[in-house]
Amino acid sequence: MSPDNERPLKILIAADTFAPDVNGAARFTAELAAGLVRRGHDVRVMAPANRPGPGVFVEEHAGAAMTVHRIYSWRWYPHDWLRFALPWRSQQNAAKVLDDFRPDVVHIQSHIVIGRGLARQAAQRGIRIVATNHFMPENMLEHTLLPQFLRATAVRMAWADAAKTYQHVESITTPTRRAAEFLEAATDVTDVHAVSCGIRASDYTPDLEQRTGNRILFVGRVTGEKNIDQLLSAVAELDPALDARLEIVGGGDQLENLKRMAKQLGIDDRTVFTGYVTDDELKQAYTRATVFAMPSTAELQSIATMEAMASGLPIVAADAMALPHLVHDGQNGYLFEPGDVPALAARLTEVLTASERKLTALKRNSLAFIQPHDIDRTLSTFEALYRGLRVEDPVTDIEPVATAED
């Protein structure tokens, strides 16, 4: 490798959602920035201001210190925490940061506001632009007041708008091959790279000992698109003899509604809503669980599912979007037809009644299948894209290590 391909880079990452927001895109952005800092690059992040307000701050995220340009923002009140930078100031804000920092490369995590302005201003200055798509219009529309009959039109307009920004970028990535194909079909862009968000599996603690109870875990935003109501209904259908306990980790606008639903279903005495928790508490929740459930149908990858796999959990997930890329039916868990509550209950029952031998095989396969998603591979792939090098999408499908049969 030539010396120019070894020198540290100046990297500007743009995100419309970033810490303290709690979601997959925000978490990926923080882990990406922190990993690049640890590799010796000069990394800055542009993100909406929260507290203490707009300005330039040195902040610590994912264990690394980095400079964050916090852009003046407004609260989006249909959502419980979302803030957005002002669209009519996006190019002005971008120009100021670009001229101050003079990065080698810009990496946008969204085309909506901050990424839109930054892509256009970086293109004018001849700066290389890489984009990662975490966007699903259906997720965004859950938090608008738009009538249902207008939503299909809004989805088409949202993808057309995304394509206008992506025409300025040199490389586009999204977390899985299925998500890449979806993006290509929705926007007519081509050559989208499938690059896993990646996690550091060694940060999680699997428990391969004999189970001491039946604990079902969900982790994620407590919002409509996650279909947590279906999970509650499925738990209510389980045989009471299983004594299954459900833990919902996360916060969101549906929290109180789902608490009421749990009470109406008669499962509130065995359902715990923790709200937001610390990283250590989250890891403990994964370790003590028996099975992880993800009923969402709008996952471009699902970092929570990856964390569960790194914790050695069998997964029961909807057969939708990117989840089948992580859940190999019958090997490290089971898929169910989206919206089919009896099927979800049946798949949960299959795990909760599995022999210890079969349960151990499911766990071992989850641990094996997560290994190709190591974040160091993700960081190396992005470094190559930042330098304008040709990359091959990392291979993430491997053979199971155990036979999950009784």
TrEMBL record:
<dbReference type="GO" id="GO:0016758">
    <property type="term" value="F:hexosyltransferase activity"/>
</dbReference>
<feature type="domain" description="Glycosyl transferase family 1">
    <location>
        <begin position="212"/>
        <end position="356"/>
    </location>
</feature>
<dbReference type="InterPro" id="IPR028098">
    <property type="entry name" value="Glyco_trans_4-like_N"/>
</dbReference>
<protein>
    <recommendedName>
        <fullName>D-inositol 3-phosphate glycosyltransferase</fullName>
    </recommendedName>
</protein>
<keyword id="KW-0808">Transferase</keyword>
<feature type="domain" description="Glycosyltransferase subfamily 4-like N-terminal">
    <location>
        <begin position="22"/>
        <end position="200"/>
    </location>
</feature>
<dbReference type="Pfam" id="PF13439">
    <property type="entry name" value="Glyco_transf_4"/>
</dbReference>
<dbReference type="InterPro" id="IPR001296">
    <property type="entry name" value="Glyco_trans_1"/>
</dbReference>
<keyword id="KW-0328">Glycosyltransferase</keyword>
<dbReference type="InterPro" id="IPR050194">
    <property type="entry name" value="Glycosyltransferase_grp1"/>
</dbReference>
<dbReference type="Pfam" id="PF00534">
    <property type="entry name" value="Glycos_transf_1"/>
</dbReference>
<dbReference type="GO" id="GO:1901137">
    <property type="term" value="P:carbohydrate derivative biosynthetic process"/>
</dbReference>
